Amino acid sequence: MAALAVHSVSKAFGGQHVLREVSLEVLEGERVGLVGQNGSGKTTLLNIVCGLEMPDMGEVIVPKDAAVGYMTQDSRYDSELTLLETVSAPTGRLGSLAKRIAYLERKMEMPLEPEALESVSRDYARATEDFASSGGYGHPARAGEVLEMLGLEKRTYNTRIGSLSGGERTKARLARIVMEAEDADILILDEPTNHLDIETTVWLENYLSSYRGSALIVSHDRYLMDRLVSKVVELEDSRSTCYSGNYSAFLEKKAFVLESQTKRYSKQQKEIRRQQDIIEFMHRVYSFSSIHKTRQKMLDRMEKVEKPPDGPRELDIDFGAAQKSGRDAVDALGVTKRFGQVPIIGRTDFRIEKGDRVGLIGPNGSGKTTLVRMIMGEEKPSSGEIRVSKGVTFGYYSQEQDGLVKDNTVVQEMRKEKKDASEEWVRNFLARFYFRGESVKKRVFQLSGGERARLAFAKLLMSKHNFLVLDEPTNYLDIYAKASVEKALTEYRGTVLVISHDRGMLDAFANRIFELRDGAFHEYSGNYSDYAAARGRAGLSSGGETYEVTRKYTDWTTGKKYAQGQLLKLSRAELEGHRWAIENGFLLKRGGSKR
User: Which CATH class for the 328-525 domain?
Assistant: First the structure.
């Protein structure tokens, strides 16, 4: 049975069709991925599904008693509400009941006739009873459990959202997703992993994989889509196409369909040209006969193979040939970093050699950007030394694109990097990044997140560098543009250091992984999958203190199961990852006392 059905939905803005006869179906318990380039209409379709926008044509069918939870990619919360109030606010059917109760309470405060007051009172009693039996009054307690599960301290529960740190607000968003899921029969998620670090993303994957309701998910995270969805709907050229399987299966099937269609189209076009030549010959030689008209009618009645779509646009990225530098591009010797009395990075030693492709990972706030700034000489370490080889030239991509001047046009930003370039040359260069026509006259503050990212990449490519430092380069890019970045990084012959939470990208290009966790530095050979496997094989490091598993449990950030009686050696850096298990009595330090 369908939990959600979209039938022939069309939507246009200013005469431009965004959606044209789009259809999809989400069955009960099914998780469906919705993909497409930025601007293909994904968010518009989600808004129509949730009733926030009306289609020009078509319909959306949702069972009458089904509760729909919708988490937008730019969820904004009232900055004056506390963390607990924000997370515990009822949604879906409970949200409707809460609004009904508030309305009836206001009505009972009005001067009413006895009969009217009795009727309102009965409605109020039914609504509150329904709210209570559905677990509504237990929402704050459940929200507290979710916040604790995500590692947020109780002291933050009564803190206003506007006063929380970036990491705490991210976890608040994650807690809202969990609460939405618990209240909803159908969960609609638009980019749920935006701004999440790898550990938190894995936690969310594990949670959603056990979700029993139906889900429609828009995400640029290929790992998440591969693990969660069993069907993919693609929006392309305003139309929808459905593919069974996860994201990797979708790519394979789409490539096969496109190749098959291209061959059939080419073969038919060749035959059409042959028939047209024959018709033209007959018309010229046998002008007195009508046989060429008969043949033309047969050709006109031929069922035509539709021309294959051009496919997703790829960014034309080429980082170019790297200039030569010394063999050891960067050496870090005993480096530490503190801000005041707060230690950020403990003693760290590493070497990045020419040609290395390093992925730098770690939880939000672990010091990744600080380490990068020290490597580039923009900050000094508190102790130790960073040596940069002679001849190294850094090219830096900031995730905030803070090098862009908001009042400059796109062309003006580019000419900052190459003052002697003609406007025609700059326009041709920008066309490689989808900036064409009037779009090159846009000012930076008018650009979308994806457009700013493309402009920052264009500026980076204007100058030749032999050491690229990229801070979250795939933020704001769609899946297809991400693939272009990955391909360019793989082909680049210089040295690369990338801060990223994109596991797919780290798998595609990295040959080393650096991890910062709780101030400690760890180094792994290979890509992200190799890193994950190494951590899995080791369990945790052999150093540190011994803890015993007192009750079996599962670590939802890694999916690893721990059996009662198992012994773990945990270093200081690894303790934080097991804090929840320790505080809730699942792990007991050997020699310690049970709670």
Answer: alpha beta
